[in-house]
Design a protein that fits this description.
Structural class: alpha+beta
Helix content: 55-70%
CATH architecture of the domain at 238-413: 2-Layer Sandwich
Distance between the termini: 37 Å
Radius of gyration: 29 Å
Number of helices: 26
CATH topology of the domain at 238-413: Alpha-Beta Plaits
């Protein structure tokens, strides 16, 4: 093996070790690894006049990859769905309210796997990330119990059809070239292999992929209880949060009018309690989950800040104070702000009503927090004291205007508290449907479809330009760009080819090279392991000639090897950097590198066993 290959493998190993250590951010480790490869190429190999490892153009080419641009635009599409409440529509229809973690995982993974068979799984995961975040909070489930199953289900679904994964398309393209290659004709004619029909090309992988996906989902659900830790316990957030008392009014045209408290989703917000309902000037004698809501009902809640935000996202539920509508804002630039009353504030000793707060500060007080206790008064009747934390409905410029004011000790914006644009929810869902249609039923390039729909979200005002820019997860894009660069180094120095050939030689020497089914299992495992180091496309391309050479030497038909290679190359379960959907859930789930190894290893073994058992049944060796 060349010195260039040894250097590349050493750097990749260093990056993997840093990620397994768990104390270095994934983006820092990946950028560091790519930088070392470029520095080594520029300094060390120039001095020795050796072959280049990875020159700058090749190193940074990954950042111009269409996949990165597509992911960035899909973050904007997801933001449009979130800002309009379209995410809630999808979540309520597909996810429901299961009672257990197992039920939640199954309700999540099944539809994701089906959709991933017919469209790129990256947009699916991008769309589901904010849905799962809100859903987990409502169900009081740690998000770490759902994010990895989300990614794995999307990867499994890519094995249902030919278009389910880019690596499937790569392998089939190589196979079709092989059938017309004169150098391969003698072997193919000898075993009776002919070019596959369009039906077999599209659905051939399904005979393995469908049962493997079903079994994989069942295995994830079964093993996640022991192998998938709770990295971010939901209860920890609730215990540490401040509690507010807030009153909301049911609007006349609200969709929750006529629904029970439970049907309206007002019982499932974590850390929130419905104190009472005031109707026509009097309190209801008892409030139960089956109490039916009516127009103009005044609902009194006590809860944590996160749930107060969720409460404001429910269509037709508005703050009880009429001062909110009088706050002057530009367009939809309204948000929630927390402000702590200082000892020098002119508000001390005045009730909220007498303070004329809205007139003076262009903000409305919607709740007051005081020493963790509930203030059993109407907002307007509360007498303000030093240290009171005010929850304000105001304009985006409030924080900058009063950050250094003597009236308040601390002023901060509440994240995720912008008002929901419910009237544009169906527009956003229509754009999502257009995206799915273009990706599945037209020849429009995926990057064009994604860019068009992202701009449509901004153009139809489903999301503002400012929010669209801030919605892009730059860490994910940086990590993927660096991973593509390091994958190019593995291929350019032939390090990946040397590794795969060496391992194959060892397996042949121990006497397992004569049984085609055993060799199929071995090559499947090698391909799956190899796909953890580079992209699934790289693993597919590098292992294809090895697979075909093995089939030729054993004098068997190649179809089982071709379709098993598709499944193996896409089995990117054992590393967060092995596939982009794993990277997308790595940070939000709070996972460690070893979490993927624990759950991904048995899942990969299951895929290997099922593939090597099923493939020969439908595609015999002889």
């Amino acid at each position: 093996m060349s010195l260039e290959a040894w250097f590349t493998i050493s750097i990749i190993g260093l990056v993997v070790a840093a990620l397994m250590w768990g104390k270095i951010g994934v983006d820092v480790a990946m950028v560091g690894g790519l930088t070392l490869l470029m520095v080594g190429d520029f300094v060390f190999f120039d001095i020795l006049n050796l072959e280049h490892i990875l020159q700058v153009p090749e190193a940074i080419r990954g950042f111009a990859n269409p996949a990165i641009m597509m992911i960035g635009s899909l973050f904007v599409v997801a933001a449009g769905l979130q800002e309009t409440g379209g995410m809630e529509v999808i979540a309520n229809r597909l996810l429901g309210r299961p009672k257990t973690i197992l039920g939640a995982q199954l309700r999540l993974m099944a539809p994701v796997a089906v959709m991933s068979g017919f469209m790129n799984n990256t947009p699916i995961v991008a769309m589901y990330l904010p849905i799962v975040s809100d859903w987990a909070k409502k169900l009081k489930i740690s998000p770490s119990k759902l994010y990895m199953p989300l990614s794995f289900a999307a990867i499994l679904g890519g094995k249902i059809t030919y278009i389910g994964s880019a690596s499937n398309i790569v392998v089939m393209g190589l196979a079709l070239e092989m059938f017309v290659d004169p150098s391969q004709q003698q072997w193919l004619m000898q075993v009776g292999a002919t070019e596959m029909s369009p039906t077999v090309q599209f659905w051939g992988i399904a005979v393995i992929g469908i049962p493997a996906t079903i079994a994989g989902i069942a295995l994830i659900a079964f093993l996640s209880r022991w192998l998938l830790p709770e990295r971010k316990p939901a209860d920890a957030v609730i215990l540490d949060s401040r509690k507010y008392g807030v009153e909301m009014i049911v609007e006349k045209d609200s969709p929750i009018v006529g629904k029970t408290i439970e049907e309206a989703g007002l019982r499932h917000l974590p850390g929130l309690f419905l104190n009472d309902i005031e109707r026509h000037g009097s309190l209801l004698p008892a409030v139960s989950p089956q109490t039916t809501l009516q127009a103009n009902d005044r609902l009194s809640f006590v809860g944590i800040l996160e749930s107060v935000i969720d409460l404001r996202k429910i269509r037709g539920l508005v703050p009880a104070t009429d001062q909110v509508e009088k706050v002057e804002v530009v367009g939809r630039q309204r948000t929630l702000v927390e402000a702590v009353v200082s000892h020098n504030s002119p508000l001390i000793g005045l009730t909220v009503r007498r303070s004329q707060f809205r007139t003076k500060y262009n903000a409305a007080i919607v709740a007051v927090h005081r020493n963790g206790g509930q203030i059993k008064k109407k907002i307007g009747s509360i007498t303000l004291k030093p240290g009171d934390t005010l929850l304000l409905d105001t304009h985006l410029g409030f924080v900058n205007a009063y950050r250094n004011s003597d009236d308040f000790y601390l002023v901060s914006t509440v994240e995720g508290s912008r008002p929901i644009r419910h009237e544009r929810a169906w527009i956003a869902l229509g754009i999502l449907a257009a995206l799915v249609f273009m990706l599945t039923a037209t020849t429009v390039p995926p990057i064009v479809a994604a860019f068009f729909c992202a701009m449509a979200m901004v153009g139809t005002r489903c999301v503002s330009g400012t929010i669209a820019r801030s919605s892009i997860n730059w860490q994910v894009l940086i990590v993927i760009g660096c991973a593509l660069g390091m994958g190019a180094a593995l291929q350019q120095t032939k390090a990946a080819d040397v590794i795969s050939q060496s391992i194959l030689g060892i397996c042949t020497q121990i006497g397992i090279g004569d049984n085609p089914q055993i060799m199929l299992f071995v090559l499947f495992t090698l391909t799956a392991l190899f796909s953890q180091l580079i992209t699934n496309n790289g693993a597919a391309v590098l292992m294809f000639p090895v697979m075909m050479a093995t089939a030729s030497n054993l004098e068997v038909r190649p179809e089982s090897f071709i379709f098993c290679l598709m499944v193996a190359a896409g089995s990117s379960f054992m590393s967060p950097v092995a596939y982009q959907t794993n990277l997308m859930v790595y940070g939000p789930g709070g996972y460690k590198f070893t979490d993927f190894i624990r759950l991904g290893t048995p899942l990969t073994l299951l895929m290997a066993i099922m593939s090597t058992l099923i493939a020969p049944l439908f595609f015999p060796f002889n």
